[in-house]
């Protein structure tokens, strides 16, 4: 007989929250390093799927003057830490949205890009196939509206992107260190050097050219030679190509001959544009249904919520295919951007969904968002109203509850649950980077939210929270390699022992998890 627990060997250890996700069609995705491994729990020794993460091309969002490179708001954009692409957040769609009636996998990487993948059907390979690049679609949308900077041509929610929010983005980068890592590539140290910026050409060229192109591209000898030839006297704008550190090379200054078509913008404009395009967390909504007005048929759909550094939450809608095929030429419904919600003024670090009936025949969707500024908000949206949203309108989410505390630790994980038998109550669990755990109860009738428990649950970052037993039991895991179980005793949350077949943990309430 096979053992109840089996070990799985991975190429690296998961290093971010939301690194492990279990799909409704019984597949487990584990994000470790630059690989997302797809496992079948029924046959761990069998074939595996793989999502190979590759560096994405930076977005040409504009150029800035050379003197603006040292503005504080550009520091988080220019800094880079990770040498390889890495998955920051993953989430499975409900079953039936992939061409094989399976689940789609949404992957958000440290360079801020979000892509959708499906399992290989007609391809003879183990690597999953990319079906959509949501970041590229989002960039195309922002480009058509000039990033919401033209009067009367942008969403109401985008009007809140101002100087104050830009300063908040820069001030919270240190608090969100696990979520702010970028892809620096290999750094080569060559003179001349000024404040960690490497300039092409000699010192005379540096003094002669007041402005240059700041581009994240590999530097080579041929590039240097061409840079010297094209360098001109006078002021030239500096191009911070794309999202700062998405390339696999060092940051270098060269001539701006190839970026003259990009618009000249201020440093704060660049920081805001970069924040809007830098995604941090993804979460699929539950499967919902609505009646099609044209065909009068019931259509099934779901929404993917994507949180960004700007505090915006983007909503992408996908319809469940009416039929499935193995024809490679048949394309299922494409994701559609239906709305933007200005949820916070800083980084959105956690998102979770839940369905609430509110004691009536009309179902609604609950959305909880956690932020690096320590706040958590609960939003309520009518399903029919959300279904009518098209063309990136302002989604009909209403703020119904907000949690603000004096704690200095940002939010790392959240979870919502509607307890069985409690028609007017919603349980909210909040995990923080300090290891603390809080539970709150929101009353849908009185619109009051009360704290029911607060404790130091783990020694390190709380990386996952999940409600069980119809909302009366809570599981938490942490970067300290432990998992714990909590259960309500009256209105108070108490820890209970977790019994396993591991000899070393039978007498302990902590379950030690081997590093992957």
From TrEMBL:
Highest taxon, organism lineage: Eukaryota
GO biological process, one term: transcription initiation at RNA polymerase III promoter
GO cellular component: transcription factor TFIIIC complex
Biased composition regions of type Basic and acidic residues, renumbered to the chain: 179-202
Keyword Mitochondrion: no
WD repeats: 455-486
UniProt name for this protein: Transcription factor IIIC 90kDa subunit N-terminal domain-containing protein
